[in-house]
Structure formats: C-alpha cells, structure tokens
Amino acid sequence: MILLTKLILVHLIGDFLLQPKKWVKEKEKRKLKSPKLYIHVGIHTILAFLIVWDITYWKLIVTISILHLIIDGIKLTFQKKNTKRQWFFIDQLLHLTTIFVAFILFTKSSFSLSIFNTNTGLLLLTSLVFLTKPTSIIMQSIFSKWNINKLTKGNESLKHAGSYIGILERILVFIFIITNHWEAVGFLITAKSVFRFGDLQESKQRKLTEYVLIGTLISFGIAILTGLLFNYLIN
C-alpha cells in the first residue's frame, strides 16, 4: 500500500534530513529535558499528516509519534559515549519495527512485500531520499569505531566532499540498476578505483586503503540492494 511507503518516507525525512547535528548533540547533553527532542517528534507528526494527507489515519500517526518519542527517550537515557554506534542501529531498528507493526495493526494487513505496492514515483522518491543523507549517516555510524582523522592526517580535501561524492555515486548506481545498465556500475567502480589509486599509493597507508575499500563496497552495496528492491517492488 502507498501508506506504508509514505510512513517510511516520513521517517527518513524527519530523522535524517530535518534533524540538524546540533539538535542531536543538545539531545544527548540534556536528554529528556531537551526541547529539541519534543520539537523533533512534533516535526515528525506534522510531516506525517502532510505526507499521508488522510485524517482517517490520525490514530496511526499519533501512535507512531508517541512510540517515536518513547524510543528516542530510551536511547538518550541509556546511551553512553562508547555505545553511540550500537544505539544508533537499535534506535533505527525499533523505529522501523514500530512503523511496520502499527501499520499492520491499524490497517489489519498481513505482512508481505506486497504491502509496499505503490506508485512508482513515490517509491522512487523514497529510494533516492534513503540513498542521500540517511545512508551517509548510517555509514558514518558504521565507521565511527575508526578514527578517520588519523588515517587522513596531512591529506587536505574539500569540506564535505567525501559525503557528496558518496551520495552522487549511490544515486548513479541506483539509476544504473533500475535502468538495467549493470555495465555502467562496473565502469563507475573502475573509474573511482583509478582516481583513488594514486592517492592510496602516495599515502602508503594500509589502514587508509582498507578504509576506502570497505567504504566503497558498503556504499555501492547499499545502492545496488536498493535498486534491486525497487525493481522487485514495482514489478
């Protein structure tokens, strides 16, 4: 159904695109006393009503919003400095689970991939949104266990360039997959390898080479899986 895709789109926009880093830091510092926590949930609620655009689902939207507040509250209460990465993934898993469960309970649907059946434009938009900032933040959380500043010490680069390159390459890979141009994916990987080879050879750092390789594989892998899932759902 279109409704479930809309609810996931709301989560991606509200949790990633419309939540500045300074809000996150303030919430981590003040926890349940932070006004940004309640503003964040309020934005989610308003956004849900705007995107769903059907007042008959108000109970579903309010329920998801309340559960979102509870989950964020639990995360802020129990999260420690050395467990941020684990709590990020637990938090996102719980949010998506509550969306699925609430959707099934309120719409009395049975779970299957067919519940994602929707118009192509909405699914395309959701996929593209996911491949931008949400995936970048997911990858940052994955790599937070390594200190990239130490690995790249002395190597100057444009501000946020790596993040923008990652977003662009994921969108390109996604487009190539959904248009069935797998050879272009191989070309893109080769092109990136050529550009990166000189930097890595010059740095002579095995750790940096491994970091870049893992990052590239994860980034391309997420884009490919998103493209395959998109093709499966629309067909």
Automatic annotation (TrEMBL):
Q: Which UniProt keywords apply?
A: Membrane, Transmembrane, Transmembrane helix
| InterPro entries, per database record | Phage_phiKZ_Orf197 (IPR021737)
Fetch the Pfam families from UniProt. DUF3307
**According to the lineage, what is the superkingdom?**
Bacteria
Q: Where is the signal peptide?
A: none
Where exactly are the transmembrane stretches of this chain?
A: 37-55, 61-78, 87-106, 171-191, 211-234
Q: What is this protein called?
A: DUF3307 domain-containing protein
Give the source lineage, highest ranks first. Answer: Bacteria, Pseudomonadati, Bacteroidota, Flavobacteriia, Flavobacteriales
